[in-house]
Amino acid sequence: MLGVRHANFFPESYLANLITPAWVQDAIIYQIFPDRFAQSARVDKPHNLETWDAPPSAFGFKGGDLLGVVERLDYLAELGINTIYFTPIFASASNHRYHTHDYFQVDPMLGGNAAFTELLAAAHARGMRIILDGVFNHASRGFLQFNHALENGKASPYLDWFHFHDFPVRAYDGAPNYDAWWGIGALPKFNHRNPQVREFIFRVAEHWVREGIDGWRLDVPGEIDDDEFWREFRRRVKNVNPDAYIVGEIWQNANRWLQGDQFDAVMNYQFTRLTLAFFANHAGVDRALAHEHSYGEIRPLDTTEFTRALVEMLTWYPREIAFAQMNLLDTHDTARFVTIARGDTTALQLALLTLFCYVGAPTLYYGDELALEGRRDPDCRRGMIWEPSARGHEMFAFVKRLTALRKKYAALRRGEMTNVYAQSKTFAFARHLENEIVFLAVNAAHEPVTLDLRVDALVPDGTRLIEEWTREEISVTEGFARRIPIPARAGTVWVVAN
Length: 498
Prior knowledge:
Layout: E1 2-3, H1 12-16, E2 29-32, H2 66-70, H3 73-79, E3 83-86, E4 90-92, E5 100-106, H4 112-125, E6 129-134, H5 144-152, H6 195-211, E7 215-218, H7 227-240, E8 245-248, E9 265-268, H8 269-280, H9 287-291, H10 303-314, H11 319-322, E10 326-328, H12 337-340, H13 345-357, E11 361-365, H14 390-408, H15 411-414, E12 416-423, E13 426-433, E14 436-443, E15 449-454, E16 464-467, E17 473-477, E18 480-486, E19 490-496
Parallel strand pairs: 2-3, 2-11, 3-6, 6-7, 7-8, 8-9, 9-10, 10-11
Antiparallel strand pairs: 1-12, 4-5, 12-13, 13-14, 14-19, 15-18, 16-17, 16-19, 17-18
Helix pairs in contact: 6-7, 8-10, 8-13, 13-14
């Protein structure tokens, strides 16, 4: 059996002081793209909006808002969600709102600050936490200090807030003559060496934590190549709320930022790559969709490679950080998992089952619970389906069962992980915490299998294992849980009986 040895390259005195928010281990996170989730009649809207069900366009708005989210909190509660991560909500001229105009004002199309205050209170009353998206690498052409330089040129007092090369400022025609994210003129990059810029960003972060948010997701933080900036960001946020969650959008191994002095965790795109490579490749991953962003080449993995990689990924970081990771299958930046898998809902279900049994916080992108499709941006940002198909109802029930499972067993949230089987297209691992032990057995093949699992390193002979949903029982004999049946393209969960 292969267990996990977490990163041990830090001194014991350091590890003893490494703290991440304990609540994240209990979190079931739901990502919402505000313009596309839900509309409320209580928010007055302009008239030129896209039809909700029409294919989304790069620049069109559909009119989703925060009071629409308030009115759907019961839906999220029924699904089992206890944490919501919002892509940007601040005033902006883009539907995704990564082009920030005012960091202290919620976009009026979303309902403004009053709507956010109502949302925060309603969510907290239900025991739900709120994470906001912090876009601190770049601003927008409509951001006051940049617009000031655009209007006043060399005479603007704010020239050192950005990186201008010459004048007049070219913000619309041709290549921008200032530093911008990926050279996109709409996204002028802040000058983070300017103390006033740094202080401005820190005050924004402090302000919204004081208002009551429970964490920040940081957009492209690796573009701010300054560890001391992020150390101070952490100090300022944690001074306001030591329990605030700081999670960065880093697509690769993130050791640089996960040493306890910058971020608590990162978005775990490596988990996504592994699950696509194992569960979706049998039907042929849509490689064009995978290559269009940072997944790159997705090479098919056999079972041994997959299970070893799941364990190895946990060894990258100290235990406290590994258990705080934001694990996911989809985001607003990627084609939907089920679409990359060419519509194979069994691949999505197997990946979701693994997600909810793995170490770290499982994260759903709105519509995952309905198998919502979507190719690359902007198609992955479709309007939410509020009248789902039969397939959607089936997937919703499946995901609801997974959220209940994770909430029921502390071992799935806080327990260690041990691989117990990997052969052909079938694997099994255990999550164990004190006397609570949960086994996940997954069959990714297209025919049913019957497994004999060697479990003597975890439980003694005579132990009874009960399948969580069928209530079938098996007794451990001679160190094995024998003849465990698993249907084709399915998984079973076995729990040690008390």
